[in-house]
Amino acid sequence: MIILDDHPLVRKGIRTVVSSGQSMNVVGEAANAKEALRLLEQTKPDLVLVDLNLGNENGLDLIREARRSGHTCKYIILTSSVTRSELQLAQALQVEGICLKEAFPEDLLYAVESVARGRKYYDPVLMGSMMGEKSRSEEQELSELTPKELEVLMSLGKGLSNKEIASALYITEFTVKKHVSQVLAKLVLADRTQAALYALSKGLVQFEMQR
């Protein structure tokens, strides 16, 4: 097992908890995605515990890159909070587990052992909270977009730049920028990255395992 977290004390605490169990041995620790990818190549672990918020990085990006690189290990996300779009992206990436950092040590051990046995573990407290939130339906959200804005959203989901979107949709870059701003405003998203995650989570574009 590898532990990925940008805080040394947190990594030490997680190692202590995990090492008290019988199913996993910790073979390495990483503070960022680059270190984690190197460890994945070197140790070929069965499981990686991934902090969702890694400073300027997101743990889901590490998982996506590792999947694309052909690593077949399992992943458990550790987090204090998660947005609906992040949860949906985790599901799209087929992440095996999500565990709250506030969970009891025995809960983390249970999550690790469950995933190690081939099961999924999504923290029941987290899932209960997400299910209880009132949110607009997908149809309501997407119906607020014009056809061209929907095309722009799908293009963002594919990771296209403004120049590439302009070329693909036969419009100017200035018009693309206006559409992007409208998409972000209507869907209450902070930036292009969130828009791309949204498009992926809603199935508007398909996640590609290979480059």
The helix/strand class is alpha/beta
Q: How widely separated are the two ends?
A: 26 Å
Helix content: 40-55%
State the low-pLDDT regions, or none: none
Count up the domains. 2
CATH class designation of the largest domain: Alpha Beta
Tell me the CATH architecture of the largest domain. 3-Layer(aba) Sandwich
Integer average pLDDT: 86
- The global form is elongated
User: In CATH, what is the homologous superfamily of the largest domain?
Assistant: Response regulator
Strand order of the largest sheet: 2-1-3-6-7-8
Mind explaining what this structure looks like?
There is one protein chain. 30% of the residues are buried. This protein has 11 helices and 8 strands. Strands 2-1-3-6-7-8 form a 6-stranded parallel β-sheet, sandwiched between helices. Helix 4 (84-92) packs across helix 11 (192-201), helix 8 crosses helix 10 (173-187) and helix 8 (147-157) packs across helix 11 (192-201). The mean pLDDT is 86. The chain is of the alpha/beta class. It has helices at 8-19, 33-43, 59-68, 84-92, 105-116, 124-132, 138-143, 147-157, 162-169, 173-187, 192-201; strands spanning 2-4, 28-30, 47-51, 53-54, 57-58, 74-79, 97-100, 121-122. Helix content is 54%, strand content 13%. The chain is elongated, with a radius of gyration of 19 Å. The protein has 2 domains: 2-132, Response regulator (Rossmann fold, 3-Layer(aba) Sandwich); 138-201, Arc Repressor Mutant, subunit A (Orthogonal Bundle).
